[in-house]
């Protein structure tokens, strides 16, 4: 039994007329009659009562029609799901991101992807750069948003966002009313910084900027998340050099100032496994590259 036999049967059951059914199927009437007889022979029961004037379904034909229509609907659904999956429009996607990405490019990316591909379920994980690399290795996330550089050749990565560094000060700080802050003026300030292992590229840039200004920062407190660093600044534990998008984190007790001299740009990079073949992940990468 072939699928075309079932389609011939359904069309004839809908038309109850061999001529009209053959016309719909774009075949001649004799081959249609032959195919229906062949199907009945294979099934072992009659599907139609035939007279010179009419064609009607048998009782078995009525039941068989209902079942076949369900099969064809399921088949069509299976084809549709297969097509959507092959285009990356269905499935799940696990995404890691450094906390600061939530204040710049990530919301736009997620909103655009959901609008373009609503059938994909997103699973989001706020992770440090080093955690994301580990999770990518073990397959716990599919794509990450990290602070570059990344030294492993098992990953592919692309810079999607760049921004300046700024200084976060307690609002009662003596420099809080300045339009900008000269880094040299922070030489004796206690600094709040994250451990280097979490984002070596950003950490090294901050240290390098301070050294170029003539001092090594005195780190009084370390914190893993940028939000925590800003909260500690608000508590007057110290000052911090942070990406400019952290200004979008409105926190009472903190003011943000531009740095003089102007700092180099820091980046957010999208990262994924170089061997990745998933259509869903490829679709995500395409959308991100298109909007950034």
Count of helical regions: 9
CATH superfamily caption of the largest domain: Periplasmic binding protein-like II
CATH topology of the largest domain: D-Maltodextrin-Binding Protein, domain 2
Instruction: Please tell me the total number of domains.
Output: 3
Strand-residue proportion: 15-25%
Shape: rod-shaped
* Biggest sheet overview: 5 strands, mixed
The first-to-last residue Cα distance is 53 Å
Tell me the number of strands. Answer: 13
Q: What class, by secondary structure content?
A: alpha/beta
Please give the order of strands in the largest beta sheet: 4-3-5-13-6
Helix content: 40-55%
Keywords: DNA-binding, Transcription, Transcription regulation
InterPro entries: LysR_HTH_N (IPR000847), LysR_subst-bd (IPR005119), WH-like_DNA-bd_sf (IPR036388), WH_DNA-bd_sf (IPR036390)
Organism: Nostoc punctiforme (strain ATCC 29133 / PCC 73102)
Family: Belongs to the LysR transcriptional regulatory family.
Short description:
GO terms for molecular function: DNA binding; DNA-binding transcription factor activity. The chain has 292 residues and is α/β, with parallel strands linked by helices.
């Amino acid at each position: 039994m072939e699928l075309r036999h079932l389609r011939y049967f359904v069309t004839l059951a809908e038309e109850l007329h061999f001529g009209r059914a053959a016309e719909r199927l774009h075949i001649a009437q004799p081959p249609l009659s032959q195919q229906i007889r062949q199907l009945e022979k294979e099934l072992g029961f009659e599907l139609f009562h035939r007279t010179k004037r009419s064609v009607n379904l048998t009782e078995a034909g009525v039941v068989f029609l209902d079942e076949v229509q369900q099969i064809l609907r399921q088949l069509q659904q299976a084809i549709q799901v297969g097509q959507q999956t092959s285009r990356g429009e269905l499935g799940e996607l696990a995404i890691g991101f450094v906390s600061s990405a939530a204040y710049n490019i990530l919301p736009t990316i997620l909103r655009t992807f959901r609008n373009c591909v609503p059938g994909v379920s997103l699973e989001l994980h706020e992770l440090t750069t080093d955690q994301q690399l580990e999770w990518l290795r073990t397959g716990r996330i599919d794509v990450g948003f990290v602070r570059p550089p990344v030294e492993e050749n098992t990953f592919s990565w692309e810079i999607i966002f760049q921004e300046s560094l700024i200084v976060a000060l307690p609002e009662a700080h003596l420099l809080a009313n300045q339009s900008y802050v000269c880094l040299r003026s922070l030489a004796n300030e206690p600094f709040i910084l994250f451990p280097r292992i979490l984002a070596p590229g950003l950490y090294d840039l901050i240290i390098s900027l301070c050294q170029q200004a003539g001092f090594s920062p005195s780190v009084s407190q370390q914190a893993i998340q940028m939000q925590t660093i800003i909260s500690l600044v608000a508590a007057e534990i110290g000052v911090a050099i942070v990406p400019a998008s952290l200004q979008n984190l409105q926190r009472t007790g903190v003011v943000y100032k531009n740095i003089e001299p102007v700092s180099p740009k820091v980046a957010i990079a999208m990262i994924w496994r170089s061997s990745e073949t998933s259509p869903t992940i490829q679709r995500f990468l395409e959308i991100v590259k298109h909007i950034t």
